[in-house]
Design brief:
The complex is a heterodimer of chains A (about 500) and B (about 260). Chain A is an alpha/beta fold. Chain A has four domains: about 1-35; about 35-190 and about 340-395, D-Maltodextrin-Binding Protein, domain 2 (3-Layer(aba) Sandwich); about 195-340 and about 450-470, D-Maltodextrin-Binding Protein, domain 2, CATH 3.40.190.10; about 480-510. In chain A, about 50% of the residues lie in helices and about 15% in strands. Chain A contains 24 helices and 20 strands. Chain A starts with a helix and ends with a helix. Chain B has one domain: MetI-like (MetI-like fold, Orthogonal Bundle). Chain B is about 75% helix and about 0% strand. Chain B contains twelve helices and no strands. Chain B has helices at about 10-30, 40-50, 50-85, 90-100, 105-120, 125-150, 155-165, 170-200, 200-205, 215-220, 225-245, 255-260. In chain B, helix 7 runs antiparallel to helix 8. The longest helix of chain B has about 35 residues, at about 50-85. The chains are: A alpha/beta (about 500), B mainly alpha (about 260). The interface between A and B is large, with 58 and 55 residues.
């Protein structure tokens, strides 16, 4: 009898458990699969007029607000500091300006391809920040929503982007077209830079670092890292292969120099790709590694003496190294450099016809373009903003705050940045008097000289066929080819395999 | 609704369907379609005709084999000592060997990188060696535990009987201990060999620039080629299935699992 009672109790317990657990579990799954149900979403449903803005940006690519308490940028025009993250500040600012509550759902991606795959899989975003070639690809695939006419209205003081964007960058965005339409219609720039070589002057001469051929220079065998992505590596390889042409005087003085340079650097014909493959295969035996993030730290710890690096990360690494008492330098190869941009684009799929949402998205871009916010972001992430500030000199002041020489300093130079700030390279208002060694350090990496800009080319996006060819090339470089396998290796391999299989079968018999 | 004990499995079944079965179906779909969306077996043919893919498969297996052999060579003697030694609080001692697993994986490999750099000077000259060391470091506890469990559960009277019947210690080991520990060996191998074939993070962190299966799959996905990428993942899955089926019944590591 007792037993039966117990049993009943247990079944009762199981019954309750069996009902509760699936409910808990189901609700967990529901919660996880509908982000709208999380905290922001609940507020949204409570107040009807909340605009939800879904933003996806690179990791660590915006001021997140976690500054030390005493950290402050004390410019003449006022102190700039950060108490909360840029995103929170935007939500508050937008409410104060318009009376509309906006709730930003902020997420991050690690590579352009990752972002593209997310979009293809149906993840919806309103505003994203991919690089130049991905913007081109999305434009060509008709995924993007054009910015409204109001956004480009320079008469409105609140349009910080159009009033502040550097004339140089503006020109680039207007001159480059996809399908007959300029980039500027669909994309607002965020950060920009060039590619080059970060090097340790103790071991590497500036001359050696100023050519793409350094990646295959056996003087630095196993002491240089290059980028673990096919586009950057291909660019360097094409630059190195065509070094003689690119450096020749006749090519340099050609009247169509810029166009010809762009054609050479974007040549992905079979012949060029085959040559690039050979070059990169040799390079693989010469470099320390293909890195995606470890290069900066390895420069600082001294594991390598040179590192193929984007200018922004170069600045970051030089700052880090200085804290350790190590002075690194940055060189841009004489042949050519890859001019790159990251820009904000609005997605048709996310925004659609929602005008409130589009207004909020455009306001976000304008908010990021307010001079003090530009300075906050630049200070926080180390990259260079496309915003020059227009009539407002805060950004230039910040530059002077960072790199301007002390009054009693003797070894100084005049460093013109007029091409960026006013569009006139000889503009005397935009000259920084900096310590001489800055001409190949942070200042140079952050705002390259005009001659660097002249030898820069944008790397296009490639069509499917060319893309497949490039990726196959990369796989050929990176994979172990079975045809290279010797007889001994085959023997050992088969022997081991048979051994393992025999063991497994023996074990079956034992049981 | 009548309740039966089977219903306790409902949460797990939901989990299984959402996160295992559905993704698998998607994998199948992409593996057997081309970029035009129609059925094709070209991806499968590509796998076996592309010298890079097969080469990578062999390369991954070689690494996995080396790691497994090194792990076995280190773990087996240790498991023997641990199970036969007369030490108080043996459980705590076993814990010590499992402890590295409680530390974050990337942190461990970063530390290892510094240690290896200290000894070698420049890591780039021995990529394969570093990879094997790195993975051994990572997977060793998975080998120790099942071995320790199967050996320590062995009936000691069998060894006494062998010795009574005039068998030497070595002979007894070969005839009694070794065969009885085979389930542990199998469990250890399957817990080391299979993950070692795809764990590309260790390669990345220790600067081995040759692709293994995991990184190859990733490279196809970042080139927007989901079809070939899925096929490689699928073939790998089939290979793993074959290994697991062959070792079925050999696995007996339930007590090891509790410790982890």
């Amino acid at each position: 009898m007792r037993k039966t009672v117990n049993r009943k109790k247990i079944t009762g317990f199981y019954r309750v458990l069996g009902i509760i657990m699936p409910i808990i579990f189901l609700s967990l799954i529901l919660l996880a699969s509908f982000p709208a149900l999380d905290m922001n979403g609940m507020q949204a449903s409570a107040e009807d007029n909340v605009v939800v803005l879904r933003i996806c940006n690179w990791e660590e690519y915006i001021d997140e607000g976690d500054w030390d308490e005493e950290e402050v940028i004390d410019l003449e025009s006022g102190d700039i500091f950060s108490e909360s993250s840029m995103v929170e500040d935007f939500e508050q600012w937008y409410y104060e300006e318009t009376g509309i509550r906006v709730s930003v759902e902020y997420s991050c991606f690690g590579s352009n391809e990752e972002l593209y795959n997310m979009l293809t899989l149906g993840t919806q975003f309103d505003l994203v920040c991919p690089s130049d070639y991905m913007i081109m690809k999305l434009m060509a695939e008709d995924e993007l929503l054009p910015y409204s006419d109001d956004f480009f209205d320079a008469g409105n003081e609140d349009n910080y982007y159009i009033n502040g964007v550097s004339p140089y960058i503006r020109q680039v965005f207007e001159e480059n077209e996809i399908g007959g339409e300029p980039w500027s219609k669909y994309a607002a720039g965020y950060m920009w830079g060039v590619t080059g070589i970060l090097y340790n002057p103790e071991y590497v001469s500036a001359e050696d670092a100023s050519t793409w051929a350094i990646i295959n220079n056996d003087k630095y065998s196993r002491q240089i890292t290059i980028k673990d992505n096919v586009r950057d590596s291909l660019f360097a390889a094409i630059g190195a292969i065509n070094s003689d042409i690119l450096l020749s005087d006749s090519f340099r003085s050609d009247e169509n120099y810029s166009e010809k340079l762009a054609t050479i650097m974007n040549d992905v014909s079979e012949g060029t790709i085959a040559k690039a493959q050979d070059y990169l295969q040799d390079t693989q035996d010469n470099v320390y590694s293909f890195e995606s993030d470890s290069g900066k730290a390895d420069m600082v710890t001294g594991k390598v003496v040179a590192n193929y690096q984007w200018s922004g990360d170069g600045v970051y690494a030089m700052d880090q190294a200085e804290e350790e008492g190590l002075y690194l330098e940055y060189a841009v190869p004489e042949e050519c450099t890859n001019l790159w941009f990251d820009g904000w684009v609005m997605l048709k799929d996310g925004i659609g016809e929602d005008e409130q949402k589009q207004a909020a998205a455009e306001a976000f871009v304008n908010f990021l373009s307010m001079p003090e916010n530009v300075v906050r972001n630049m200070y926080y992430i180390g990259y260079t903003s496309v915003i020059a500030g227009g009539d407002d000199d805060t950004v230039f002041e910040y530059l002077d705050w960072c790199y301007g020489a002390e009054e009693d300093e003797e070894d100084v130079m005049d460093y013109p940045v007029g091409y960026f700030f006013s569009g006139d390279e000889d503009d005397e208002d935009y000259v920084i008097t900096a310590s001489s060694d800055q001409c190949n350090r942070q200042l140079f990496a952050q705002y390259p000289t005009n001659d660097v800009i002249e030898r820069s080319a944008i790397m296009e996006y490639f069509d499917q066929e060319a893309n497949a060819r490039i990726n196959q090339m990369w796989i050929n470089v990176r994979c172990y080819n079975i045809k290279d396998m010797g007889i001994v290796a085959w023997g050992v391999f088969i022997l081991c395999l048979v051994g393992v299989l025999a063991l497994l079968i023996k074990a079956r018999k034992l049981n | 609704m009548r309740f039966s004990r089977k219903m306790l499995a409902v949460p797990y079944i939901i989990f299984l369907v959402c996160f295992v079965v559905l993704p698998l179906l998607v994998l199948f779909y992409y593996a057997f379609t081309g970029s035009d969306g129609y059925f094709t077996i070209n991806n499968l043919l590509d796998f076996f005709t592309d010298p890079n893919t097969t080469g990578t498969l062999v390369y991954s297996m070689m690494i996995a084999l080396m790691v497994t052999i090194v792990c076995l060579a280190i773990a087996y003697p240790l498991a023997l000592v641990l199970s036969f030694a007369d030490i108080p609080r043996k459980g705590a001692l076993v814990m010590v060997f499992v402890m590295p697993m409680w530390i974050n994986f990337t942190l461990r490999v970063t530390a290892l990188k510094e240690i290896l750099t200290f000894f070698e000077g420049n890591l780039a000259y021995h990529p394969l060696f570093n990879t094997v060391i790195g993975m051994t470091y990572d997977f060793l506890p998975f080998m120790i535990l099942p071995l320790y469990n199967s050996i320590s559960r062995m009936d000691r009277s069998l060894l006494e009987a062998a010795s009574d019947l005039g068998s030497s210690k070595l002979h007894a080991f070969m005839k009694v201990t070794l065969p009885l520990s085979v389930p542990g060996i199998i469990a250890g191998i399957s817990m080391v060999f299979l993950p070692a074939m795809t764990n590309y993070v260790v390669l990345d962190m220790l600067y081995n620039s040759t692709y293994i299966m995991g990184s190859l799959i990733g490279s196809y996905f970042s080139a927007y080629d989901w079809h070939n990428g899925s096929m490689i993942a699928l073939v790998l899955l089939v290979i793993i299935c074959i290994f697991t089926l062959l070792s079925e019944g050999g696995e007996d590591n339930t007590r090891g699992g509790a410790l982890l």
